[in-house]
Predict the 3D structure of the following.
Amino acid sequence: MAKKKMDLSMNNILTCIAYAIIGILFLTMKSGMIGVMMTIIGVLFMVMGVIDIFKGKDFAKGIGEIVIGVVVLLLGWLITDLVLLIFGILLAIKGAMDLFKNLKNGLGAMLSPLVTLVIGILLIVSKWALTDVICIIVGIVFLVNAVMALFGKRLKK
């Protein structure tokens, strides 16, 4: 069998660099990366709104985009905090209900509801610590994707 040459296109390299940067940011900033993403999203909405207004496309749509951008910038953390709290409460309730439903089915059937209950309680009590762990996992996934984007064609037979 002849060895295949590694075909690195500019797209593969740029994708690799983007994934690696995002992964490193998630690993180093953890839950702080959520604030960065909210800021970027808020600014992008505001820029899209200004562009829509000045191009004369749709004045109402442009104003709406600007308002959404401002809301994300000013109330992003409050919204995130409330969503995490509500999600934690819902997960804890779901975990507890499933746990009681599966009491008779043995330890294997109780494992998933128990994990759901613990994650729900952690989101209620210590949401930012759990968010840090999730961000670390997301950072690792992005770094693995960076390697796969760079060497993906070479790894395939």
About this structure: Residues 59-101 form the longest helix (43 residues). Residues 1-5 have pLDDT under 50 and may be disordered. The chain has one domain: 12-150.
